[in-house]
Amino acid sequence: MKTSTPPPFDPNDPAGIDDLLSADEKAVRESVRQLCAQRVDPYVADWFERGTIDDIRGLTKELGSLGVLGMHLEGYGCAGMSATEYGLACLELEASDSGLRSLVSVQGSLAMFAIWRWGSEEQKTQWLPPMAAGEAIGCFGLTEPDVGSDPGSMRTRARRDGDDWVLDGRKMWITNGSIADVAVVWAQTDEGIRGFVVPTTTPGFSAPEIKHKQSLRASVTSELVLDAVRLPADAVLPEVRGLKGPLSCLNEARFGIVWGALGAARSSLQAALSYAGERTQFGRPISGFQLTQAKLVDMSLEYTKGSLLALHLARRKDAGTLRPEQVCLGKLNNVRESLEICRTARTILGANGISLEYPVIRHMNNLESVLTYEGTVEMHTLVLGQAITGQSAFR
Ligand SMILES: Cc1cc2nc3c(=O)[nH]c(=O)nc-3n(C[C@H](O)[C@H](O)[C@H](O)COP(=O)(O)OP(=O)(O)OC[C@H]3O[C@@H](n4cnc5c(N)ncnc54)[C@H](O)[C@@H]3O)c2cc1C
């Protein structure tokens, strides 16, 4: 038994999970944290309030220079980092704002991953280097106005016309849509669902922005309108047919969310802890009341458990043993618990909790979207229900 003195207790890492990270992993986390501190944190509440990110192209290039766009992919200008490093980056980005993490997730895990995993050599060479550098922005069109959780029922259609493909349909709730240079669009064909790489300058393509959101306001969300969009034969992703294509991409992005949601939780927890130490009622700081302490302790517990789960899943991903059901488990738990942490933080801040002067209500509202996109809580419950019981309850 060792008798050395343990290091001091860190309220921001109560279980000492940092011990499980390598120096390289901590360095990646630090570099993303610094970019966020300088380039995002001072402005993001204002962006959220105005529903826009100033100089989003410049910011995307800075993210590219840092190497976080498609950072877990190999080759074609991508950084080829580990799943753990990718996860840590997502956590830092989302500690600033879920909109920022969404930009990076959609770029790297949805649009770039689709091309990297299922594209032709020409598609990879054309799109991946500029996307990794942040010079080209991508979006991923799966959801439609009438089709969300059941993407197999999509109505967007691609038909052959000679050698060409012609796409007609609508996509809805598409992150980065109006600012994208390239859209990965999924459509029904005579050969089943297929993916298409669509330059957004193609005639017939338009992407009006969706307004009036009260969540993910520092993120561009759009409709994609595909009106007889004519594409050459080589616009199709050649290596995949069927739902496996989009689902494989969602699996990647969900992994980032397992980590990212914890960033929103961490920021809210830190805000609540600091506020509770300063706010005085009945003659003492509210952090001295047992009810407030119970809240802070429960928040810390869930944050710690979620962090351990995220790290465990990342190690499995790096080892090549991570199953999609396990990603669902992480997404379901960590988003649900992070949202609960934000809601509880909101109560600790009292009336101030509803103000954008503090990050809490912004994170809380953002996580309402994160709870729904990339598979709703209910869908992940059904996936796990099926995995555990062997019975499908989807229909
Ligand atoms: C801000 C934001 C950004 C997004 N970005 C993108 C993007 O970039 N690309 C993209 O393709 N999509 C994107 N989405 C869409 C998102 O993935 C969908 O909203 C999500 O898949 C749910 O689909 P839906 O909204 O149509 O809800 P629905 O599928 O209509 O579900 C409504 C409710 O019914 C429940 N439900 C449905 N079926 C069942 C069932 N069998 N059993 C039990 N309950 C069920 C759902 O869980 C949910 O609670 C985004 C969404 C938001 C809010």
UniProtKB/TrEMBL annotation:
UniProtKB keywords: FAD, Flavoprotein, Oxidoreductase, Transit peptide
Q: Which domain of life is it from?
A: Bacteria
Query: Does the record's keyword annotation contain Transit peptide?
Result: yes
Limits of the Acyl-CoA dehydrogenase/oxidase C-terminal domain: 241-388
Q: Which residues form the Acyl-CoA dehydrogenase/oxidase N-terminal domain?
A: 23-135
Organism, as annotated:
Humibacillus xanthopallidus
Q: Which family does it belong to?
A: Belongs to the acyl-CoA dehydrogenase family.
Q: Required co-factor? A: FAD
Give yes or no: UniProt keyword Flavoprotein: yes
Entry GO MF terms: fatty-acyl-CoA binding; flavin adenine dinucleotide binding; glutaryl-CoA dehydrogenase activity
The record's Gene Ontology biological-process terms are: fatty acid beta-oxidation using acyl-CoA dehydrogenase; fatty-acyl-CoA biosynthetic process
What is the designated name of this protein? Glutaryl-CoA dehydrogenase
Q: What range(s) does the Acyl-CoA oxidase/dehydrogenase middle domain occupy?
A: 139-229
